[in-house]
Design brief:
Shape: globular
Largest sheet: none
Helix content: over 70%
Number of domains: 2
Number of strands: 0
């Protein structure tokens, strides 16, 4: 089952540069990256409503939502920042530079999240090889940008 998860994640990652380019083009049509992000999120929200209606999962009780910690609501904000940054900067940086720098940022923060075991992740200490991997990603960003 892990291979299926990895494959689906690979496909989701493969869509990211396409999403960046599509949203950048949308920004040209609507006149602003924030407006493009709003339209993109509206389309995504409609798709999720349709998918949710097809699956028909039981909705959580309001008390469960009210008792959730404040920070669990920030995920949508983080997504909005990413989509807006993609619409604004991917055309200027190019797909490879934009995606490589965002992946480097993801890995660097992921190492910290793992190390401290926060936001639901199991604690996995920082190791020298993990840091070398992160530094290689940063070096990769520089190479992708320069060449």
């Amino acid at each position: 089952m892990v291979w299926l998860y990895l494959f689906v994640c690979l496909l989701a990652g493969a869509l990211m540069p396409l999403q960046a380019g599509v949203n950048a083009q949308l920004a040209r049509w609507v006149g602003h990256p924030v407006t493009a992000s709003l339209v993109s999120f509206a389309v995504g929200t409609l798709a999720l409503f349709a998918y949710n209606a097809a699956l028909r999962p039981q909705l959580p009780p309001v008390a469960a939502l009210a008792s959730a910690p404040w920070w669990v609501w920030a995920g949508g904000l983080f997504g909005a920042v990413f989509v807006t940054a993609a619409a604004a900067f991917a055309p200027r940086l190019g797909a490879a530079t934009f995606i490589s720098i965002t992946i480097a940022g993801q890995v660097l923060v992921s190492i910290l999240l793992d190390h401290f075991g926060v936001v639901g992740f199991a604690a996995r200490p920082v190791t020298a090889l993990r840091l070398v991997g992160a530094l290689l990603l940063v070096a990769g960003v520089l190479l992708v940008r320069k060449f």
